[in-house]
Write a structure and sequence with these properties.
There is one protein chain. The chain contains five helices and seven strands; from the N terminus they run H-E-H-E-H-E-E-E-H-E-E-H. It is α+β, with helices and mostly antiparallel strands.
Length: 171
């Protein structure tokens, strides 16, 4: 009995050691030039964590604001927990981010520069704790976005051509 419990405990720890992605903001990578990234914790309520464990969240309109020496995550949508009662949370409330003082000060000074903002990139569980990856970013111009899309398309076409040549060589 004790041996079986030890095995299940070891399996659970191994599963929790990995990184379980909940939500990703692909649009941010398209719209912004990522300068620097930070991993930070979130202050959440119980129903928010349960809703996240079901894999439900959206980072699309999210942004970070430094207010009073604290970092706050705004407009991230975590839907209400279905089995929650009166203790349920508001879906788009602002949530406090857990960062070191040095990181907050650095982000505050850099985000004051023209064209810079702080956006969330990913929301995930790491060792059982909810984490968010935020980025200091600078907005891209329209021609920069088109250039990035063109480069991605060229890269895909080159990979297709290489794989086609390799298939012909095998046959």
């Amino acid at each position: 009995m004790a041996k079986a419990n030890a095995k299940t405990k070891a399996k659970r720890q191994a599963a929790e050691a990995g990184r379980k992605l909940i939500a990703q903001n692909k649009k941010a990578r398209h719209d912004y030039l990522i300068i620097d990234t930070y991993e930070c914790g979130l202050v959440l309520t119980g129903t928010e964590v349960k809703s996240l464990r079901q894999g439900r969240a959206s980072l699309v309109d999210g942004f970070v604001q430094i207010d009073g020496g604290e970092a706050w995550l705004h407009n991230v949508h975590i839907p209400e927990y279905a089995q929650g009662t009166w203790t349920n949370h508001a879906a788009r409330r602002k949530r406090k981010l857990l960062l070191h003082r040095v990181e907050i000060d650095k982000l505050a000074s850099k985000s004051q520069e023209t064209g810079h903002t702080i956006v969330p990139l990913q929301l995930y569980f790491l060792k059982g704790r909810a984490k968010v990856e935020i980025a200091l970013a600078k907005g891209k111009k329209e021609y920069d976005k088109r250039q990035t899309l063109r480069e991605q398309q060229d890269r895909r076409e080159a990979e297709r051509a290489i794989s086609a040549v390799r298939r012909r060589q095998r046959a």
